[in-house]
Amino acid sequence: MICKEDYFYRGKLLKHICLNTREKFCVRSNKTAVARNKAIDRENSSARPIPLEWKFYAKTYEYTHAGIYKARGEGKRSRQESRALDCKAQFNLCGRCNGQNGEFTLCVTKTTLVHNHALSL
């Protein structure tokens, strides 16, 4: 899947994915273009620097039920529910340079769309 970076900036891609699948993904981590460009310089890489207009070079989105619940007390409240179900569903978006025309495009680099729980409509 490849799309324009403008779509990425405005969050339209995530809204589109969430509306179509009725799933809620949140940003877990992101990598800035500045940090990526510093790594390219440090490693003397032949990779093209990421345009600074792209504030982020890559983002990881995880499902709202990711993580493990950690109890902070010893008691148990009735009907106490947690969102954290250790769900592994996530996807990564990354800006890449298209070798043919030199333009940067946004690509889905990794997806794990299997849930460890039932999805409701």
From TrEMBL:
It comes from the Eukaryota. This is FAR1 domain-containing protein. The lineage of its organism: Eukaryota, Sar, Stramenopiles, Oomycota, Peronosporomycetes.
